[in-house]
Structures are given as C-alpha cells and as structure tokens.
Amino acid sequence: MTINRRGFMTATGALALGSTLGLYPRTAYAEAQKLTGVTYLPPSYEDLAYGSQGFVDLVNEKHGDVATIEFYDSGRLLSADEQLPALRSGTIDFMFHTTSYITRSLPILGITGLPGVVGELYENPDRLKRGSPLFQLVEDELKKNDLTVLSLGGGVMEPEYIWSTKESPIRSLEDIDGKKLRVVSFEATKAIEDFGGAAVRIPSSELYLAMQRGTVDAAVANISTINGRKIQEQTAQVYKLPVTAFGIGIFVQTDRWEALSEEVRNAMMAGVEWFDENSARVANQDYFDAKYWPAFREAGLEVIEPTEAELERFGEVSQNVREAWIGEVGEEVGKKAIDLAMGKDA
Questions:
Q1: What would the pLDDT profile of 90-116 be if each residue is shown by its tens digit?
Q2: Does the keyword section mention RNA-binding (predicted)?
C-alpha cells in the first residue's frame, strides 16, 4: 500500500477521533494487526539500520499471518522530531529512535549518554539488555509517561569521540578549550562546555560542509556518522575520549501496546528478542571494529587514546553533568541507574 504523509496524518487523525468519540466498534481494532513503524535513519547507515530492518523483516516474514508491518525509514513519513509526538497521539504504532535525540523529553534515557558512565555501558552491554535491572528501571520510568520501551538494542553503540580537523587538532582535554565542537545530545553539550569548548548543534546531514568551511573545529560523533557522511575526509585525527553515547530503542505507547492481542504482541516480541540480541552487537563488532576502524587507520587517520589520568579527570569534571541529570530524574532513580550502569549493586 502506498501512503503519502498528508494522507497518513489525515486518516490516522480521523481514526483517533473516531475511536475517542466511540464511532468505531471494538472489532475494528483487529486491523491493528497492520502496524505502522518509523525511523528517521536511512538504509545507507547499514550499521545502525541493520537492527531495525532485521526486526521488520523477521516479523513480516515469519509472523506475517499475525502482524504485518508497514515501515517508513529515512524520515519519509515523520521527521526525527515528529516521531515522539506521533507515537503519543497514536498515529503510529511504534518507532525506532536514537536515545540522544529524545533525552530532553524522556530524561531517564540520559543514562545512555552520561559522561563517565557510557564507557562502562559500552564495555558491558549485558547491563542494558532486556531483563537486566537497569533496563527494567528505564522501562518503569518510561511507563510513568505512558510509554513502553521494548528494547534498547542490547546495549549502547560505541561511544562518541572527538573528531577534529587538521587545522584545529584536538589531542587532549586541554585542546578542547576555545574550540567549536558539533554535538547532538544535552549530555555532550554540558561535558564540552565544562572544558571550555563551544557546543554547536548541527545535524549530521550538514556536518561535512560545517567542518570543511570551519564552522566547527571538531565533531563529537559516533563512527557510524563519520563513515556514513564521509566526515573522515575532513578530519585528521580522532581523540577517543568517550564523551557520550546512545542506544537505539523500540518504543510503543503503553495502552496501545496492551490493547493488542496476545498473538500480535508475541509476534512483535519475536522481533524484539532478535533486535535486542543483534542490533548493538552487530554494529559495534561487525561494522565498527571489523570494517571502519581498520579502513580509517589505513587511510592515515591519527588515533589518540586518552591516558588514564585524562579519563579520570574527564570523569571528575563531568560529575556536574551527572548531578544535573540526577536532579531531573530524581535522586533515588538517578543514583540507582548510575550504580547499575557502573556494575554496582543498587
């Protein structure tokens, strides 16, 4: 079925209104077996899209008699900023979203991007898998907002490091001072500002020209963004300081999810279990470690590993970022989440 954006929003708006007014019988909800899902990520990001497309294919191919997914990638139906409002209004059934984009709306997801914490989460992905205490805590907090997270991809993606131009190299914490760095998440913004840098929010689609023209001196980015946008052509070195990170989650509206039949939910959960096992793992290992880093090094990229002293200092200075986040989610929840992410008993 072909659907354009205006027609989609009109039709789903009418359906939502009709349901609210009681104009549709309960049996009409059987059509919810045809589920609409979205992501703003394009298929050209093979690494990040691997999990979402694999989820959709598994459900459609193995459980198509129970649930059929109409999937819109690349922001073809909804932009990144429109996804969450559309989910809450019921105009879509589920969404894939990177956590870094929605931590302002859903602060508990900030645990996936906290400086001084993300390195531990990356090295220990089981701490964020479905069923783990940390995942359960995140799920419980999101349900207070009438949202349910089905998976966070089985872990965070490799942390976002600092990729700088030849003209304005960043090889140490001191080099951040006075530089303009592209960032996305709130957590990264605070961390960069604490070291004297100027944080500039620039979408990945505009990053290549921004670095080429000197609009920014460096980018805080995941290696997927660097490879997908060919940013390595504008960088001479990468300082592998784990500034922040993100996960890719599958989100549903809680009451809409619970209203689905058990058969449909089971079909979706088969895809969820696959996604949780493969999304972050395949991106981090099969793409980043096995393909991208070797190719970048061979092309001459200088890779600077931070010293233990630099990592310790970064963690200390970034403590205020963590404290600010705890203030947003509540002291009990925030401290428990950080302890669980760091492998401590909470």
A1: 999 999 999 998 999 999 999 999 999
A2: no
